[in-house]
Amino acid sequence: MNHQKISWHWSLVVLSFLLMVLVEASGVPATFAGSSVGSFEIDGNLVDDPPGEPIDWSTDPAGTIPHPALPNRVDFIDASGQGDDSFGLGSKELEPGAWQCITGSAPGKDDIVKGAVALRAIGQKRFMYVNFFRAGVNGDAHMDYEFNQSAEPNPACPQLPRRTAGDVLIAFDTDNGGKTIFVRAFKWVGDDKVGNFAELSLGSQGVLWDAAVNIPNTIPGVAAGAFGEAVINLTDSPIQLLCPGLAYMKTRSSTAINSALQDRTVPLQVAFNDRPDLALAEGSAFGARVRDTVLGIDQTLVPVSSRQHGSVETNIATSCWTSPFLCPVGRISGPTSCGRRARARLRTRQRRRSTPAWPRRST
């Protein structure tokens, strides 16, 4: 009997070893890194294999509208060569008031080809997904995804939005040829000329975030290290996107957050509306104060001249939307500043309260 147990034990060992050899020989990872974060195949490719949960980028390919799997997906396409939108010499991350926006080529490793940003709800959790393709792989990748509340132009670089306090930046950096990946989150502390990015702790890889690059490469026609992807758990992280209006991608010359800027995409409107109970608000609107002692928020948002989304299931007592993207529910200007359904629900809730949180506007 003991002999049989020993024989069976060694058979399992041999079988496990053979499976490991076959997986390594095929170049496919044994498990999908990051599947536990946002139910997404963070494995360095686009193919949803096996199909179903966890999903991948091919579940909801670029160019499909609407996006059933990633309903809040935004895709960026960027030029290359002398016709590319880039930054002039001396433009640094922490000095938007001194940016030079020019037309010209960027170094291959910092040349954005395309990328994507998406939001997805899984139960009560919210997750953000990002990816990028770059032109060259002769160095590490240093990608930014910036979310701005204001749609007003940056006086120094009118092609990009003005930075305001509370804007959020997601940074994706590689080291040692992609062997090490860093995903960081920052909140802007400053004005439209100069300031600093306060880093928001995301912890270690595989818990609140995960990331991968295509090394070894399994994407046809793409060089190893030219593609990267990441997922972030927004609900359990300290990231608070305060009414994002515009988003764009850009690159830095190194991991340092104040390193020289290189390439940039055209800013696009973001509409993070991943639940049917989210209402569209549009027009020049938000100048209200977001205040919540529990969340530690006390901020006056600048007026925004772009379309916004916010949950109509409003926590009136705390004057913020019940979403990772905290937007004010104070007085909003403009006849079309809030969706018709949102106004109706808010009026209903106000009638049930002795002290309305949103005073009726005078006509």
Textual characterization of the structure:
- Helix content is 10%, strand content 32%.
- With 363 residues, it is mainly beta.
- The chain has two domains: 32-269, no CATH class; 278-351, no CATH class.
- The strands form seven sheets. Strands 6, 9, 10, 11, 14, 15 and 16 form a seven-stranded antiparallel β-sheet that branches. The chain has a five-stranded antiparallel β-sheet with strand order 1-4-5-13-12, with no helix packed on it. It has a two-stranded antiparallel sheet with strand order 2-3.
- Residues 1-33, 275-350 and 352-363 have low confidence and may be disordered.
User: How helix-rich are the residues, as a percent range?
Assistant: 10-25%
Task: Give the overall shape.
Answer: globular
* Distance between the amino and carboxyl termini: 90 Å
Number of beta strands: 22
Nearest-integer average pLDDT: 75
> What structural category characterises the helix and strand content?
mainly beta
* Main sheet makeup: 7 strands, antiparallel
- Count of discrete structural domains: 2
Spans of at least 5 consecutive residues whose pLDDT stays below 50 are: 1-33, 275-350, 352-363
**What's the number of helices?**
2
Taken as a percent bin, the fraction of beta residues is 25-35%
Rg computed from alpha carbons, rounded to a whole number of angstroms:
23 Å
Task: Please write the string of helix (H) and strand (E) elements.
Answer: HEEEEEEEEEEEEEEEEEEEEEEH
